[in-house]
Amino acid sequence: MARRFYVLDVFTNQALAGNPLAVVLDAEGLSDARMQGIAREFNLSETVFVLPPENPAHSAKLRIFTPTKELPFAGHPTVGTAILLARQRFGDTDDDQNAMVVLEEAVGNVRCGVVLKNGAAGFAEFDVPRLARPADPLGDKDIIAASLSLEPNEIGFENHRPSAFESGVAFAFVPVANLEALSRARPVQAYWQDAYGGDGGAPVYVYCRQTTTHDGTFSARMFSPGMGIYEDPATGSAAAAFAGVVRHFDKPTDGTHYLRIEQGYDMGRPSLIDLELDIEGGALHAARIGGQAVIVSKGDLFI
Fold first, then answer.
1. Does domain 2-130+292-302 sit in CATH 3.10.310.10?
2. N or C end of the chain: smaller count of CB under 10 Å?
3. What is the per-residue pLDDT across 119-133, written as a single tens digit (0 to 9) for each?
4. Radius of gyration of the chain from its Cα atoms, rounded to whole angstroms
């Protein structure tokens, strides 16, 4: 049986940048083991399998796999799949086309607003399905520095200190002094378990306040060798959990705040992730993740 697939570059408006994503459209009948094997075959940070929705009012049910495990939620698969399904529904259009796509993921239903433009990258923004909340504490600063090939005095800036938050997937968040330290960071997996706990498979999001673009708010890199991802060019699920970091350390005032996160620049795959926070009474009330995506290839799997 031939199963259609597409590859998109996500969190970018041009091919060969952003984070590549494989989307298998005809996934009915595939076992968990087959899906995991296909994800290893693509060997991208995530592969999405599209299934009929359990609720017919929704657009699709998604299964999301890294090369080594299934995830309950991920950002760039949500953005890329929403744009692809809207393209499948409306095709090319002379005018801007707005669409609402509801995706059933293991974390819950995810509502995505999509804007399509003829001959241009699509844009999708989704409501974060689970607001960021603290996760398990991390190790001390010395072991965290060693895990990233950095010096202890390069860990932290202003009042930002290493922390852990989750929004469906737990991340360790490590602030570093500047772009130069961010660029030099290299994961040393031998220190991973002592630094981040668990089974040593924690994904780690390293960030700083300095940016490359004039409208950037933070620069970031994400390492997850335990998931088979040495480095990820753009990580929407980390951005969703990063909302908790921003609220905790920056204490934004009540209202809506717009942030832009740069990622992937050290990999030669620049990515831009939009993060919106709604603060009410000093607490995080809602968050949204947005970005663009372009289709770069399509084909058939004979599996």
1. yes
2. N
3. 899 999 999 999 999
4. 19
- For the chain, the distance separating the N- and C-terminal CA atoms, rounded to the nearest angstrom, is 6
For residue 155, the one-letter residue type is: I
Cα 89 from chain centroid (whole Å): 24
Do residues 171 and 140 touch, judged by C-beta distance below 8 A?
no
Fold classification of 133-289 (topology level): Diaminopimelate Epimerase; Chain A, domain 1 (3.10.310)
What is the helix (H) or strand (E) element at residue 114, kind and residue range? strand 108-116
- Whole-number Å distance between alpha carbons of 234 and 267: 10
Alpha-helix residue ranges (DSSP H) falling in the chain = 32-42, 75-90, 141-147, 179-184, 192-196, 236-250
d(CA 140, CA 163): 11
- Write down the domain spans for the chain: 2-130+292-302, 133-289
Q: Give the angle 38-65-289 at the CA atoms, nearest 5°.
A: 135
The partner residues of 105 in beta bridges, in order of sequence, read 108
Q: Mapping DSSP to helix (H, G, I), strand (E, B) and coil, where does residue 280 land?
A: strand
What's the rounded Cα separation, in Å, for the pair 287 and 239? 10
Q: For residue 302, count CB atoms less than 10 angstroms from its CB and return exposed for 0-12, middle for 13-18, buried for 19 or more.
A: exposed
Q: Which of 154, 7, 141 is nearest to 76 (CA)?
A: 7
Q: In terms of Cα–Cα distance, which of 176, 225, 220 is closest to 196?
A: 225
Q: Is 46 a catalytic residue?
A: yes
**Token digits of residue 188:** 């040393």
SS3 state of residue 198: coil
Encoded tokens for 151: 């010096």
pLDDT tens-digit profile of 141-190? 999 999 999 999 999 999 999 999 999 999 999 999 999 999 999 999 99
